[in-house]
Amino acid sequence: MPTLSPTHLLALLEGQGLGVEYQPIVDVASGSTIGHEALARFRCADGRCLPPERVFCTLHDSPLSLFQLELKIKQLQIRHAPPSGLLFLNIDQDAFATFLGEERHPLVELLAGHPRAVVELIENSSTSDAQVSIAMLGHFGSAGIPMALDDIGAHDSLVSLDVLARVDYLKLARDWLDRLAGPHGQPLLNGLLDFARQSGKTVILEGVETAEHLQLARRLGIGLVQGYLFRPRFVQFWAPAQRAGALA
């Protein structure tokens, strides 16, 4: 991977090297695609990819720049989304928090105009993350936008019960596929799935890579799955250069 330099970051903020990968969310019973998750992709001028996590982490010290990039990516993801099905969109808590307290929130206004959008909250790693997630639930919920909680049960994340109770979709991290081999994995998952059934929430198992993973989801009664087993259905789009002489 190339070194992430200020030159690369400036080019991204100017709209160069922005891309999106649409990963299908698949119905276990029918095998049909019911929607897609839109994931940010970045590259430098020579075509080499830049790790999305590093890009966003680097910009966290510059909240307005982080928000600028998040907004550009969301506009791209909506504009070029597949023509049917749900569209799951991750929103960075820190980017969203930049406009908390303002009379109008650009991300809420952008997504409120998309009838198929579902906002994904990234699993919490701190109390402040949970507080922002609750604020996001209020803003997007008031706009009538469904919410999903991403990466539930990831090994390095925490769970806010208030957030868990208020979202519409529960997205289980791939970690559950390994955790089930341990002594407490199955009881924990059974409790979570029972909670989802009783509260009318839809469960999506992420990280499905093999036919065995798919069969496991079927046995557990999980209705929707996502992962590299369905890679032939992935769709990528790269925004064309907006000006000549893009930065290298």
What descriptors fit this protein?
248 residues; alpha/beta; eight-stranded mixed beta barrel; 10 strands; disordered C terminus
* Unreliable residue stretches: 244-248
Structural class: alpha/beta
What is the string of SSEs from the N terminus onward?
HEEEHHEHHEHEHEHHEHEE
What value does the Rg take, in angstroms?
18 Å
Helical content band = 25-40%
Strand tally: 10
| N/C terminus separation | 14 Å
Give the helix tally. Answer: 10
Largest sheet: 8 strands, mixed, barrel
- In what range is the share of β-strand residues? 15-25%
The overall average pLDDT, rounded, is 92
The strands making up the biggest β-sheet line up spatially as 1-2-4-5-6-7-8-9
| Backbone shape | globular
Description of the structure:
- The protein is of the alpha/beta class and 248 residues long.
- It is built from ten helices and ten strands.
- The chain has an eight-stranded mixed barrel.
- A hairpin with a 5-residue loop joins strand 2 and strand 3 (49-50).
- Helix 3 (63-79) runs parallel beside helix 5.
- Residues 244-248 have low confidence and may be disordered.
